[in-house]
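FAQ: What does a multi-protein file look like?

Like this. Sequence, then tokens, then the next protein.
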Amino acid sequence: MAKNHNRRVTQYALISAFGGFVFGLDAANISGVVRYVTAQFGLNSMQMGSVVGVAGIGAIVALMITGSLCDKYGRKNILLGLACLYTLSSTISSLASSYEILLVGRFIGGMAFCSLSISSMYIGEIAPADKRGKFVSINQLLITIGSLVAFIVNYLLVKSIGVIDAVTTETVWRFMLGFELIPNIIWIVLLVKVPKSPRWLISKGRITEAREVFKKIVPANEIEPLIMNVRQTVSGDDTNLLGQVKDLFSRRMRLVLFIAVAFAITQQVIGINAVLFYAPVVFEQIGMSVESSFMQTIYVGIVNVSFTIVAILFIEKLGRRKLTLAGLALIVIAHGSSWYGFHSATYQLDEQAVASLQQQEIPTEPLAVLVGTHYSSDVEFKADLAELYSPNELPLVTGPIIESAININASYVLFGIFVFLGAFHFSIGPIMWVIFSEIFPNKIRSIAIPFAALITSLTSYFVQQFFPWQLEHFGAGNTFLSYGAVGLVSLVIMLKVLPETKSKSIEDIEAELVAN
């Protein structure tokens, strides 16, 4: 019987977290899209950042209202609505005829990004305490699997340019974005099958319905004690929005709120979405060809999936705190390695390099004035390239030109990037959603988790929006150095405040962390 309960919880968790797959797909798709969209619409670095970052604004807007909607209509119904938004976004984005319409489509898709916080909330409310970490981590696992699938599809589409008539440099990005429609529709169909959150049902006084849900996910002898425990934590609470907001920011919630905000900012400010949302652009900075940079993204996807599985296997054994601290320490080391690799790189074009570029059908006439010039900064080199090529040409020629001119020990950068990705995905990546699902009391969860996710989305927006601008003005090395510096500060903070919550019920964690 216990096996049936675990099977059902696993099934519901996977369906709920499937939005993570869609999110990962979108994140990886846009990393391939930006190069071609930038060329087609002649975008500058800030506009390129907006194509990626506007989704973060959509998430911010949605998260401002998601909490109250979840409390009123339930987690399941809101997830269904968000799945429909993903579908609308994919349709508009893939058919966009202008930069502005693409922004609208991306904004709508960003509103659906808050499915990550809602699914974490839902899973945290149906999963048993001793397995909650694993189940919530499924969210991150599906994000990484979605990214891997998109990286593979993007690579195959890029390989198809010039081979399949319909796939050209002008249309390839439409196929990348349009591919998202398939999982969007699948998710809508699957969500219909999951039950409502039993803890939400109890908060609404629908005890009979909650009992029926609990029968599916916990042993019979645990149902009534569990219902009584949950009722005690929500009884007499002010469940209106204003009451929840006041409680969230009250003195007694100070420690819980600080932990959540620290985690939310840390997860994004260390640069994960700069690397994931701009993966081909990042590898282009090392001097890789277009095809090679897209191939590297597949390795990125494999690393992400592999180390998320590591997190799922060890999160209940080693705990949230140990994995988080170990991951942050490795992230600091990784960013230091990337900085050193980029910092020591030099750039110089010679006649042989120009001849190689001509064979790749790159227009080389403008490069004559750069032949023999030595550059010790990628900022200066790319600035001179920007003077020689139009906004429509520059995104398509920059990668091959850097590949021909750069002198770099790429192993330092590759080591840094892949260690960073591995460390993130066995620590702060999945664990943030676990922490969010655990530390907030039942009575304010519907407002607290979206609020914490709002902080994450706000931080992520600034990282995504300004990454192309940082590359243009500060260079790749200094950009990664800044991520390492904030990672070090975050490590010190987490060392002081992060508690261990493994194998504890939501109600027990509340008793420990929330002041009376």
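And here is the next protein:
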Amino acid sequence: MADETRNHLDGRAHVVVQSGRIEQLHQHIGGPEAEAAVPFQLPPAGHRFANRVAEQERIRRAVEDHVPQAGPLVALLTGIGGVGKTALGFHVARHLADRYPDGVLHVDLDDHRREGAVELAEAVGEMLAGLKVEKDWRERAFAARVKQLWTLTRDKQLLVVIDNARFGSEVTPLLPASDRSLALVTSQGTLYDLDVAAVEVPLGPLPAPDAVELLRHLVDDPRLAAEPEALADLVEGCAGLPAALLVAGRWVRKYRRRPLSRLVGELTAELREKGLPMVEAVWDAAYEGLDGEAARLYRLLPLLPAPVIGEEPAAALLGSGYDEAADLLEELQRAGLLDEGVDGWRMHDLLRGHAERRLGQADPAGAERDRALGALVRWYRRQAARADRTAAGPRMTFAPQPDPAGDGPADLLFEDKAHALRWLERNRAALFGCVRLAFDAGRYEDAWGLCEPLWTHYLDHPHPGEVLAAFRTGVEAADRTEFLPAMVRMRCQLARPLWEAGRHEEAARQLDQAVHAAQALGTSFEEDRLRASALEFQGLLKAETGDLAGAVADFTASREIHARIGNAYGVLLLTHQEGKVALRRGESQEAVGLLERAHAAAVEQGRERMAARTGFELGRALRAAGRPEEADALVAAALESARRRGSATDEVRALRELAELADALGEAGRAEEHRAEAGRIVALRGGLPTPHTS
């Protein structure tokens, strides 16, 4: 198996190191500048780690005995939920970090799990981010991202903690390409489909002495020594699960005046009454100690479709203000029913299941759940729409905004475009999750209405798996409402991520339906605009698949509609698209004419980004037409615009085009300077040699 693993990994590395510029990038990332910012993605130890001596020794021996050229060492930590796999992985990683000078990375696969499946492209992207690869420089396609990861890790000594794996196929793409690296993987069971050799380290419940030792570390309380029998009963009831012992420790600290025997007796009585294991009784006791609103929030928190719990959505669930929700979250944390991480509040999976059971008991008819879910979805719809308007300005939308009355928390205010985009990205898991929640609850307008503001975010932050799932749901939701504009718009939004994923035939079917449905739209300005938009999408797909003549026909038809309804920006966009296609077809003179008109319109309308884009394309067309001296100023202006906007991708494109222009003008020295500058930016951004273009 070791030889197979070596051949497998060596072959993968071989695929991605052919380019000399990739070699140059690899050397740069491994140089002194990178060493100054070595990643260490482990949380600080919350308390003294107790026990698991045999398991730690097994991992240590595996590290010492690992054979070079056998691929990265994989240690698989297995056991039931709450048994302490993640805590052990973090503890071992902290102690072994010095052996891996290139850093320690951590990825929790549950953070990227959607409806049971991990969006692996996002998980790989998180690892690339840990390696200082900025998002603009991460490959979009999953396979390309994996190769990018292999390229950047092939000679490194990395330690990677991969949490909450369910299948080996979720782990393999995340492994470093270097045989000097270590991966600590946690899973509830053996990963039989893991295609690399792994040292399995099973974790069972803690033996009673070890559990007592852990509880003593967690709770500095004289009752533990004074009442050894009660302590033994408490530990036995927690079934040796560190997660349960942690909650029990907090609970013991909370009731400092009660004898420990009384506390255990109360728990035991409740256990007999409800027939639950003691660990459930511990959480039930903590829950029963909450006030009414804190208990209600606890029951409702599992409705949140994201791993991180924020104060704002918690307030939406309750119909309260933000400050009240923040206070209640703190009460849950003090009760041991919520954890506070660096990125927000989190609820352990075992506790989430407990909260769901308590909701079922308190709300058997589902009225409380339905009210809270509706309020949550409406709140996210409003905030996403506000963020989208701030980031993209007024644009074509068809979903009416939900009435905020009675939902509790006030709407958020976004300072500027950057703030709005950050909010959308930070909350994307919840936003995409709410699309599915709304659909499953029969709230079809909410489902497709949420997809509308996610479009602009998708263009700047592509997350293919999430987007495809959400936009497919948006199409189905629009069909359920039989609202024609939504049916057209959702199919257009779905088509682009489909063709970007290489699913051209499926994208074509969606757009064919959209274009035909658009013929039945009315004659209002927005409906005509939507009809033109459907034709534009169809033209973009044709251009993507090489049908340039068909693309021109669709772009022309779309532009004519925009001209008829007086939409100057639509005319500008479609003229730009026609010019780009003409340039691709080698019709440089026609391209110059079209792009000159588009550029002039962009300048006149005061649209800086479009002025830069059209100026850049016009410069390329002028060079192709043998007029490089006229192109230089246009591309230089595009470069300055890219720098003002902080768009490194556009900056590199402009620098490379300026180099081509300098060559055409016989200025070899200037050409070399531009190429060197572009290469420096690529290396600093951690990207591969060819950046993405829009």
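Q: Is there any per-entry metadata?
A: Some entries carry free-text notes. For the entry above: Residues 394 and 466 are 25 Å apart (CA to CA).
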